[in-house]
Amino acid sequence: MTNFRDVADEPSEAGRGVVTIADVAHAAGVSASTVSYVITGKRTISPATRRRVEESIRALGYRRRTGSPAPARAGVLAVAAPLPREGLLGMEMEFFSAAAEAARELGFDLLLVTDDEGTAGLHRVTSAALADAVIVLDAGDDDPRVPLLLASGRPAVLVGAPGRHRGLSSVTLDFAPAGRACVTHLADLGHRSIAHLVPASPPGRRLRYLKGFAEDFRRAATRQGVRAVSRPCAPTPEDVTHCLDELLTTGGPTGLVVHDEAALAPVMTTLRHRGLRVPGDVSVVAVCSAAVAGQQRIRPTAVVIPARELGALAVKRAVRQLDGAPGTEPFSVTPRLVAGESTAAAARS
Fold it and tell me: How far apart are CA 104 and CA 255, in angstroms?
């Protein structure tokens, strides 16, 4: 394994036997995350602080341990995931289902950690050795769970948009190309005005997904000569109605990209109640899981989130680490746009 273990290779001179990152942090007068950043190089640390940490590491005898015998397994993989307020949606259900199937095939059970604060529940699981490895869903840059995982020394897999964290395996969901694909698809059908409906309050760790998608969406629209607007839209019938009332005025967008699978059904219903045909009057592209796409009255053109692939892949990478396989480079998964029945050539005015 290449992840850093939070134990000393040999007993310290003080005779304590085990030296933790918390010990190093206390001696250096810094936070545990600062110690982790010094070890991993994830952040730039001031020379003075780095020296204090390094001196404490040397004085306490802290060492990264990579060749110790593996402890007895609990037969459990923990999955840390703050659940959405509206409950499990298609993406989360597909991820957990595929992860559970893969874990069962490999002889493991799953333990779901749903602490929205992100660290308290995870600390309880790792400190009590309740799980052999940890899978963290919706991981991002500067994620507060990363230093905790580094300090725990347990194999971990970050799933989401975690950047590059030394010592932790990751599966990256690259949404940026999907933004370009949506614009290109609609522009090729003659749509010159497109609205991007984004979550009104996206979970903090998902902001990077949305940012990458939105940036490439705007750049592609500029290159294609398409007018693009972005509009927050909560997934309630009232908010969707208000949102579409503002957008669908004379000369408004003829294409909608719905970037919240919880809002897809209300959007389609509201368009129908307004007497607008999909795709005859308005074309709709969804960003959603295969499960949510399959629940619609018509098969939508959609950027399909490969949630099942992510779930199975995360479990397999975690178990490979437990079996002694070295850490690998981050693995990137790119959602693809699948043409359906909700988009067509723009209506002539």
Answer: 43
Phi and psi dihedrals of 196, rounded to 5?
-105, 110
Task: Report the alpha-carbon distance of residue 335 to residue 175 in Å, rounded.
Answer: 7
CATH of 176-305, one of 3.30.70.360, 3.40.50.720, 2.60.120.260, 3.40.50.2300: 3.40.50.2300
Residue 337 pLDDT exceeds 80: yes
Crossing angle between the packed helical segments 47-60 and 21-28, to the nearest 10 degrees: 120
Question: Residue 273: is it exposed, middle or buried by C-beta count within 10 angstroms (0-12/13-18/19+)?
Answer: exposed
Through-space distance between the first and last CA atoms of the chain, rounded to whole angstroms: 62
- How many residues in the chain? 349
State pLDDT tens for residues 267-319.
999 999 999 999 999 999 999 999 999 999 999 999 999 989 999 999 999 99
What 3-state class would DSSP assign to 52?
A: helix
**Domain map (residue ranges) of the chain:** 1-69, 76-174+308-334, 176-305
Least confident of 79-83, 87-91, 319-323: 87-91
CATH class in words for 76-174+308-334: alpha beta
Q: For the residues of 185-240, what is the DSSP string, one character each?
A: HHHHTT--EEEEEE-SS--GGGHHHHHHHHHHHHHHHHHHT-EEEEEE--SSHHHH
Of the candidate ranges 31-40, 41-50, 66-75, the one whose mean pLDDT is the lowest:
66-75
Note whether 1-69 and 76-174+308-334 share their fold: no
CATH fold of the domain at 1-69: 434 Repressor (Amino-terminal Domain) (1.10.260)
User: For residues 159 and 170, is the Cβ–Cβ distance under 8 A?
Assistant: yes
Q: What is the pLDDT of residue 162?
A: 61
